[in-house]
Amino acid sequence: MLHSRRPGAHPLSTHEKIEFAARTTIEQVEEGDELAPKFDAHGLLPVVTTAAESGEVLMLGYMNEEALKRTIATGEAHYYSRSREVLWHKGATSGLVQRVVELRIDDDQDAVWLRVEVAGSGASCHVGYRSCFFREVPVGVPAAGDRVVLQRREQAKTFDPVAVYGDAPNPTKL
Ligand SMILES: [Zn+2]
């Protein structure tokens, strides 16, 4: 349903023309053809992003309504940064834009799967790796006295974060 707009209001920008349906029935949400996403109590939904070609999991992020609408409207991944509390056009700073090859939503429409092609060096992780999931946690009980030791699964960074981001604050919060 279109909202009525007061006269003289500025024209809608592209992403504002995208409307989400109200969630009315289970059948509509699960098997219908209406986009009726469910955002959580913080107004977010989780997004898993994979490389379109290889299927490699690149990152897990979150979108608010505006990020989802902008992603749909532009065909480039937009997220909501929980640490920085801002809408985030992925690649705006680094040039490593994620072009959306396919955008899927899950059965109950509370999670999104993006299949993307990444510009430039192909990295999606601000630490410099292709995937944010570049370390493996070994499964199994360690020997007495041993700690869990993370195993690096990408050998080299695909870009130098210092060169790309300079002195911009690191989004990782302790
Ligand atoms: Zn990362």
Q: What is the terminal-to-terminal distance?
A: 43 Å
Outline? globular
Strand content: 15-25%
User: What is the count of DSSP helices, taking H or I runs of 4+ residues?
Assistant: 3
- The helix-and-strand class reads alpha+beta
CATH class: Alpha Beta
Look at the structure and name the CATH superfamily. Phosphoribosyl-AMP cyclohydrolase
Tell me the number of strands: 8
Low-confidence stretches: none
- Strand arrangement in the largest pleated sheet: 2-1-6-5
What's the number of domains?
1
Bound molecules: zinc ion
Mean pLDDT: 92
| Main β-sheet description | 4 strands, mixed
Our Rg estimate from Cα atoms comes to: 19 Å
Secondary-structure element string: HEEHEEEEEEH
CATH architecture: Roll
Could you tell me the CATH topology label. Ubiquitin-like (UB roll)
In helices, the fraction of residues equals: 10-25%
Q: Layout of helices and strands, plus pairs?
A:
Elements (H helix, E strand, L loop, with lengths): L25 H6 L13 E7 L5 E7 L1 H10 L3 E4 L4 E4 L8 E8 L6 E7 L16 E2 L14 E2 L8 H5 L9
Parallel strand pairs: 1-6
Antiparallel strand pairs: 1-2, 3-4, 5-6, 7-8
The structure holds zinc ion.
Describe what you observe in this structure.
- The chain has three helices and eight strands; from the N terminus they run H-E-E-H-E-E-E-E-E-E-H.
- Strand 5 and strand 6 (112-118) form a beta hairpin.
- 12% of the residues lie in helices and 24% in strands.
- The termini are far apart.
- The protein has one domain (16-158): Ubiquitin-like (UB roll).
- The model has no long low-confidence stretch (mean pLDDT 92).
- It has helices at 26-31, 65-74, 161-165; strands at residues 45-51, 57-63, 78-81, 86-89, 98-105, 112-118, 135-136, 151-152.
- The protein is an alpha+beta fold and 174 residues long.
- It is globular.
- A four-stranded mixed sheet has the order 2-1-6-5, with helices on one face. A two-stranded antiparallel ribbon has the order 3-4.
- The protein binds zinc ion.
